[in-house]
Request: fold
Amino acid sequence: MILKSQQNVNKKGRSLWYDAWKRLKRNKAAMVGLFMVIIFIIVAIIAPLLAPYPPDEIDLFNVLKPPSAEHWLGTDFYGRDLLSRIIYGSRISLSVGILVQVISLTIGTIFGSLAGYYGGKVDMIIMRLVDIVMSFPSLLLTIAIMVALGPSLYNVFLALGLVSWTGTARIIRSEFMRHRELDYVKAARSIGNNDLKIIFIHILPNCMAPLIITFTMGIATAIMSEASLSFLGLGAQEPTPSWGSIINNGLQYLRTAPWYSLFPGLAIAYTVLSFNLLGDGLRDALDPRMKDF
Amino acid sequence: MAVEEKVLLEVNNLKKYFPVKAGVFRKTVGYVKAVDDISFYIKEGETLGLVGESGCGKSTTGATILRLEEATAGEVKFEGKDILSLNRRELREMRKEMQIIFQDPYASLNPRMTVADIVGEPLDIHNLARNKKERNEKVRELLGSVGLTAEQMNRYPHEFSGGQRQRIGIARALAVEPKLIIADEPVSALDVSIQAQVINILQDLQEEFGLTYLFIAHDLSVVKHISDRVAVMYLGKIVEMTDKRDLYNNPLHPYTQSLLSAIPIPDPTFKKERIILEGDVPSPVNPPAGCRFHPRCPKAMDICSQKEPEFKDYGNGHYAACHLLD
Reply:
């Protein structure tokens, strides 16, 4: 009986993704992370339904109110509802996280795969570029790019993307160096594939595991970086409700209205924790060899 | 080399050196002479066994013939056409004529592709199937010819055993209907019980499709079973090449003699003299002067360390390179 049902599953073909999902499901911390991430994404999507007030509705009679029944998390110095602002802020964080990772993974994957696949001079030039970018403290470099481009949310995407691709490039390069020597790549060449097909159809799908892990972990980093930039006044500008800028605004009232900075700070901590938990779990599930990193 | 029958593949003075780089500036400080001036030929429909210890350059020879590695010097002729001078497009066409089967069935199949895609990919690249239906039909046929069933088409490589994977690799090589197949130690990673099965499949396919094999192995007993002629390699050179029967009954080169004496005989009462070689294979970066085998040769003479022996015909196409024979 058992044997029969197993064979039915086998007929369809059990991909490696299915195995990874089964491993991930067994990991409690990762499932908690996944649950937290899903909640975060849902909140960002249905923000207008959840928020009790419009995020930039100014109410000068209720300035800097502590948490109460009307304003669960209190109000800021314009009397805006902090809960609403934090809920809307999740949209900024989510889009920063995803867009920055898309930009940085695209650049990193292209450079990393070319360097790893071709080696030699191509590798030398690309890796020296990586070294140059990496030799600057990343926040400093981001600030420099932001200053050059001008402070706006779209420039945050660009600046963070341009700074954070180097790690991906290194990971993808090392994966390509390992895979290009394997027999399945030689086989692909011997049946007449060209380099482009070998890179994108044969090797890259085998690098999906580290890419997915980098993507998930990178979202957390990008959200932190955006918060830091907004905190420094270089990111999202008023009245856009970014968590970093709310913390910055609250800083001057830290003694009299500590909830002002506390709640957006907790929101950042929650999000970063959730993506890191999920990322760790994904790493264990997708690539058991990477556990030690 | 003068040959009467139709020669499918001719290799003349093939060399493949890998540069050894060292230091901060990656300067080339020497070369690994993996394949150093070898010549041989394979007649249509026959199997040439290429044997030698690991690291002697057998696999590099195979990879260089297929241009998976670019040769340093020499000539590889397939049906009279020089393969090493082909441009990219011509090479792609040539890929239909020559295929390879790899040693490690766990590394030679892309783990993210289904069996149908692995076997069907060569058909797509060379436009050998007009539509999806024909492609699936052909994949089914190919899998059938190596003893796999159509139900297994949509599975992934990790769901198969080593022997089954190796057969998938064979089906992939067959997809383009090649004339020559380079089998790079196709059974040495398999269980002994599976080895015979895979070798029988290779022999059946040879009969059915008129294939020519270059069968690379480090095991003389396997080679004895499948080959028509055998070439013995030592440290980047072919030391002896002849008919299978000739080689096993009358080995000329001391290296071949010692290899043959190492084959176990399934008869406990039979006593035979084993020639045990001293020491290890020298480094191919700095091979010994003269005959490369002389530091380990039980019959070495003075001349062996000074002059390299010539690889020549000692009658009936029995080629060898040894000073003892002169």
User: Anything to note?
Assistant: Residues 1-10 of chain A have pLDDT under 50 and may be disordered. The first helix of chain A runs from residue 2 to 12. Residues 93-245 of chain A form a domain with the MetI-like fold fold (CATH 1.10.3720.10).
